[in-house]
Amino acid sequence: MDLSEELRARVARVEGGIERLLPGAGEPSPRLHTAMRYAMQGGGKRLRPVMVLSAARLFREHPRADALAAAVAVECVHAYSLVHDDLPCMDNDDLRRGRPTAHRAFDEATALLAGDALLTLAFEILADSYRGDPALASALTLELARAAGSRRLIGGQMEDLLAERTGAPGPLGLEYIHLSKTAAMIEASLVMGGLCGGAPEEALVRLRSGGRELGLAFQIVDDILDATSDTQTLGKTAGKDARAGKATYVSVHGIEAARRLARERSDSAVELLSSLPGDGGFLAALAQNMLGRVR
Ligand code: GRG
């Protein structure tokens, strides 16, 4: 199978897991469950859950546990963060994945609750799906809670919001924001996959470092695309960062330096991921593929 065929197969597996593990739209309360499904569907690239599945396959012929539930849990947290990020009190965006954002398609209170429910569901899925291996359930829960908590994802979002009010955070502040907002969930995806695959400690360290580099590269690419692409291609409002006076890699470093930084981070991610056993090549190729859009 070539990369795009393999990627399609793994995305399809994730979609199947989402369908199975999310409450049905017809369950009480149907409006909430419909909004949760809306937030989880609609053309997300599924990068993080595919990374979970791909990292899990590296280490053993017979992995410690099936990584699909962990992959869905990661995507639940990602979807919640996007729903909340789009709300009027945060980024106030109307478009996500080429469709109305959740609060536009439903209403603000429903979107808020759907985000809350997706975040909570992520931990229910982990506790329920891995209860046969309590040490694994606990390690996965800790990894995801740390990535999503106040020291990483939510802390990064807070600093990003504050920077909009107080002015440019400078290169180090910007790196802190993006390590927390973007890299944390990518690191967690690779580490959670490694945990399900039964990876040894040194491989978990390498997955974490690869995730950090990949996450930063991903964010720099996102900033470059925001500045250079259009709303139709992106499926979300282009040029919004500059209009909001947001600090991005492009506004802080300039477009050429941002391109160079994206290349450096992505080369370092590819090197780290290629050094993993098994089909580490797939993860490296996936990284190259997702970052190649601005080269
Ligand atoms: C509200 C706690 C809280 C956090 C929000 C994720 C986030 C933090 C903000 C979204 C805005 C943003 C630029 C985040 C950086 C990460 C990023 C590029 C997210 C979009 O990820 P993709 O491109 O999205 O993988 P899809 O739609 O493909 O799932």
Structural commentary:
There is one protein chain. The chain has 15 helices and two strands. Helix 3 packs antiparallel against helix 4 (68-86), helix 4 packs antiparallel against helix 6 (108-129) and helix 6 packs antiparallel against helix 7 (134-148). The chain is mainly α and 295 residues long. It has a single domain (3-294), classed as Orthogonal Bundle (Farnesyl Diphosphate Synthase), CATH 1.10.600.10. Strands 1-2 form a two-stranded antiparallel sheet. The longest helix has 28 residues, at 170-197. Bound molecules: geranylgeranyl diphosphate. Residues 44-45, 47, 81-82, 84-85, 97, 153-154, 157, 181-182, 219, 222 line the site of geranylgeranyl diphosphate.
